[in-house]
DNA sequence: TTGCAATCGATTGAGTACAATTAAATTGTA
DNA sequence: TACAATTTAATTGTACTCAATCGATTGCAA
């Protein structure tokens, strides 16, 4: 037990988390390339597919992203014709993001992505459920 | 059970992983600010503290980072006076990264960081160990 | 030994990501 | 009603991340 053992990469909990996160996002890439989205664009579209219409603020809360990240992502999705960006009539400060027909149609091409991803994972059902539970628990630390 | 339930953010395993990874890196920031490192610089220094001297290639393998990311990080660490960068005499293609005295001395100021971080986590010992085990398992999918 | 494939770091470009600041709109208050 | 405080998206600056490519070096085989 050396004085500096706590600084070894193998003894960190954060590093495998960081590495796995990057690894999974990279694993998504070939599937997301097929539908022309990046991972960040994909999770933004997932929220829109579920909610149909949402303010930029709420979207940022769902994804844990601030306007510095979200603004260029939403402008890109708009330029792809998948969403519309418009100020709210009730409160001009709010930006309302909504799906276009093209954006809604993309859902049918995205619906296979989760299954393709699960097929790549080496986790058992139990470990996946356990991982999900622990990560949810861990997220409370930042909320 | 809707046709598109698999596309809900709440049903993804990747998203909590991605969110937790970002959350933890952000939680490190105040502690790493005290020693003047970013998270990426910190994990690079951890490898050097453990190995003392390593090629850029090996360092990239340890951290799962390619030269596009690593080159500017190492140049920054060099400009801070923490490391040296020099071509190998045996093989001029290899870049050998080594600690300076200043870089080695920084370890004594970094040694408290892991404990400060654990104090921020809401995980039990058991869950932390379980998380570690599952993430290691998951990483096999990308290796 | 000469030519070619492989290796390695550096560079470039696109896309995140976050902190800090700015500007516009709204709300609360005197 | 003026005006301060708050809220929100956008902008700016710094840093990370990866894919693709390039140039130099090395190793191997004809």
- Please name the fourth-level CATH homologous superfamily of chain A: Winged helix-like DNA-binding domain superfamily/Winged helix DNA-binding domain
Overall, the morphology of chain A is globular
Q: What is the ordering of alpha helices and beta strands of chain A? A: HHEHHEEHHH
Q: Which pair of chains has the greatest number of interface residues, and how are they split between the two chains?
A: A-B, 57 and 57 residues
Radius of gyration of chain A: 18 Å
Mean pLDDT of chain A: 95
CATH topology of chain A: Arc Repressor Mutant, subunit A
Fraction of residues in H or I helices of chain A: 55-70%
Number of domains of chain A: 1
Structural class of chain A: mainly alpha
Strand fraction of chain A equals 5-15%
Number of E-state strands of chain A: 3
End-to-end Cα distance of chain A: 34 Å
Most strands sheet of chain A: 3 strands, antiparallel
What is the subunit organization of this protein?
homodimer
Detail the poorly predicted runs of chain A: none
Number of alpha- plus pi-helical segments of chain A:
7
């Amino acid at each position: 037990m050396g004085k500096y053992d706590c600084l070894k990469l193998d003894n960190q909990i954060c590093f495998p988390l960081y590495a796995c996160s990057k690894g999974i996002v990279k694993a998504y890439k070939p599937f997301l390339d097929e539908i022309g989205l990046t991972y960040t664009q994909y999770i933004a579209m997932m929220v829109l597919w579920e909610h149909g219409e949402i303010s930029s603020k709420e979207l940022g809360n769902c994804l844990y992203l601030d306007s510095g990240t979200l603004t260029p992502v939403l402008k890109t999705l708009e330029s792809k014709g998948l969403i519309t960006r418009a100020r709210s009539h009730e409160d001009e400060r709010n930006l309302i993001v909504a799906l276009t027909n093209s954006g809604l149609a993309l859902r049918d091409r995205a619906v296979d992505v989760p299954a393709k991803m699960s097929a790549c994972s080496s986790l058992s059902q139990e470990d996946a459920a356990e991982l999900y539970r622990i990560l949810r628990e861990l997220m409370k630390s930042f909320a």
